Amino acid sequence: MIPAALDALPAALDALPVALDALGGDDAPRVTIEAARMACARGLGPVALVVAPGALSAQARAALPAGVRVVEAAEAIAMGDSPARAARAKPHSTMHVGLRLVRDGEACAFVTAGNSGAALAVGLVTLRRAEGCERPAIASLMPSLRGPVVLLDMGANVDCRPRHLAQFALMGAAYARAVGGVARPRVGLLSNGQEPTKGTEALREAHAALAALGAREELEYVGFVEGRDLPLGSCDVVVTDGFVGNVALKVSEGVVEALSLRVRRALEGRWWTRALGALLRVALRGLRAELDWRRVGGAPALGLRGAVVISHGSADAEALCAAVARARECARKDLPGRVSRALALAPLPPTADPLSARDREAPLDL
Asked: Which architecture does CATH list for 137-266+334-366?
């Protein structure tokens, strides 16, 4: 059970710190320390900075603002560590300590830019699964013509059964309602065509389970969608397995980066294109900001009994500060509770995908 502190009013939650893994990320602890300072300066504090021995000098500790509390851990989980092994072999890591703060009601949420698989594995050990959740999933926001689209899973579950995909749809819709403000999210399953006969057997069974839900207040299931529907914003939530979802996100990030470079080179090629670029600078700057993944900050892990946000390993201080803001928003809007209620209020009909007790307790594909 999550402590009563996490079910309190938003004002009480705002008094709790966001636990930030100081050793998570490629440039930690430099960027995490700066992110903690930045978050407090922008009214996103307090922050509980979870450090390991030797990570924070006495000078750096003394320079921290009043809103940053230092919490000591014994060690860190490295990017190359096996998630499942690290979750058991390093019980006093910065991830374990930070997530225990959430479990014990001493923090409202946890943020890390470290090993994402380990963050989920440690989350399962400390926070446990939300009621009714069989597989937690990582949900990201992708820009589209019609606003942000929730895409899940982003890598936690490479091999998904039909019931897992159907549950992702319910959890993703809860995220779109809670954080995106979408009253009745349109949900689609990512496939290689829109016809019901397309896709893998697991996709077709998940489609049948979601279609059997019928008209629901919680979501509108639109059926299969294709890859092109992501940037077009044809629906609010797109569901797929962790392998495809991670590839789709990375491809979209690469396309945005490549197009930005191509536009810049084209505008810098001649004197008259440079003059045109100066006229378009404000509009292009706004578009670039809209497409910048750092504004999103991180992706919440849905299906855990607490708010957890996982940021990119290459995140800078700006991105991590946005992740702190995202985590605080998830806690304030009780995203974990909303996910549990979505799974309970919209039970899935029986499918040809029975789950044994052993499968329900199986670890993620970490």
From this structure: 3-Layer(aba) Sandwich (3.40)
